[in-house]
Amino acid sequence: MTLEFLSMAYPPLIVFAAALLVLVLPRIAGFAVGALSLAAVLAISLVAPEGQHLAGTFLGFDVVPFYVDDFSRMVGLGLGFLGVCSVIYAYSSEASKTLVAFALVYVSSSIGAAFAGDWLVLLFMWELMAVTSTLVVWHYGGEAVRAGFRYALFHGTGGVLVMMAVAVHYVQTGTFVYDGAGIANGIPALLAVLGMGVNVAFIGVHTWLPDTYPRPHIAASVFLSVYTTKTSAFVLYRAFPVDAGSDLGIYIAYMGGLMAVYGATFALLQHDMRALLSYHIQAQLGYIVAGIGMATMGSDLAAAGAMSHLFNNVLFKSLLFMAVGVVIYRTGEEDLYKLGGLWREMPLTAIGFGFGALSITAIPGFNGYVSKGMLFDAADPHYYGQPEYQALYWLLWLGAIGTLLSFIKLGYYVFFHGESDLEVADAKPGQTVAMLGLGGACLLFGVWWQGLADLAPTIHGLEFEYYGGHSHLHPYSSGHLQTAGVLTGVAAATFVVVRKPLSKLDLGDPAMVVYPATYAVSRWTMLGVTGTYAAVDRTVVGAVKRCYWIGNNPVLAVDAAAGQLPDWLVAVDERQPTDGGRPSTIHLRTGIGTTVLLLTLVLTVVLWLLVV
Predict the structure, then answer these.
(1) Tens digit of pLDDT for each residue in 337-347?
(2) For the chain, what are the domain ranges?
């Protein structure tokens, strides 16, 4: 009976109802309801029976709003647990009821997209996610408003591409319901990867991340850092699942590798702490995208690694935004180079940051080490990977070194460099609970890696074949630990060398040219359109005026027209005054032959136009 009830309890609707209650209840009661609604999502994700639920028809189309499988269950668990921690953090960070209500509607749409069982429901949730996340950004005001407009333009464009992909997919397959094979090959797959690529920050369409996420309230940044990007990465997997055999698989994989390097590189150059973390969203999404690309070409280990890293990202990325948010909340400073020595003033925040940094940099004992290790193994041609993944494997290596460098830099300058000039309080109780809750989960799934493996679809009890034989998953083998040690050692040594030159660099992201370029193109396009409209308007209005005047003044019109003809053709006497003088007259000067020729030419042109 309980399981039947859970299959009827639609998670997004529960969170949406909580969002409405947040607006009308006293602050503490409303936030408590919000946290409980997300705890309910966590519980439903854990025990809801697998399969299609609440299936029906909409406008004659089959729809499945609530679909539970191993993949959506894992994502639901991560999003639900993070949601509880994020609401607690928002309460302690003095976020307004309106902001949290917007954020909960945003979260509900994200959860709805994760549990959607068909492309039609997915589209609705996808667009709702774009709208509500924009409201979360706008709510803060100031610079966040213009950034929110740019954010909305990106996600609106991506949404249109996804909508087109789904429409063509329906034309080819005759159904919106997921069939396990992903999006249809050809045009639908191409449109889908481009549209979803906006939300998962493909290189060139990633600029909304560092442009938007550093600007709103610190609690808003925590929500934003996870729900759009991680849900979209999961939807990308739905479009290109394991063994889909898409021709785009290899390109998706290499885009992921390039994202890992690009994001880590520009994170390393940032002064703004939240901008640094935003670029690392792109970098870590790169690992997930690379795993999805390898999975669609048949790698079960890559699929497990991609989904595990997505789950882990939900935990440690939000934790890092929380820790940095507390630093900003207490000091009012966003520039990491203007801080230092804060570990003495804010030890709890430093611990929370340490848990997140050790996780994202894949240090043994933390969850990022396990999931990133799966992806390294899946890409390594000398292990489980294919020969064509060799360059991808080295790209993931470079991304890992860049990630280590970035977080050594961030931790060093914020918490350990010099003595602090500030006397500030540490994190508030709610902030501490949220950070340590997420940090504890990062440590749990790093030590108890079997629990993470049990959650990961496509990996349960499997042996993986490779060129040297076969084996079960074992992340703490001597070879894996040696790889982690080499990566850490290289990054630490490199930081010592580049620390001072790095502090003097302030290089911009070349992809940011998209904003002035878009402005210039839009401006000149608008001027071209409005100028053309004005010219057409002047022409039409002038023609109408002339026709009206000719109708009322035929004699004057003939005079005027004749006056424009050459003297050898006609002669027009000057018009005399109307006080008794004679009117002007027109004298034709051409002979009969010229007249016939002219009339023939005119008639020929008219007839030719009529025939054509």
Answers:
(1) 999 899 999 99
(2) 1-239, 245-508
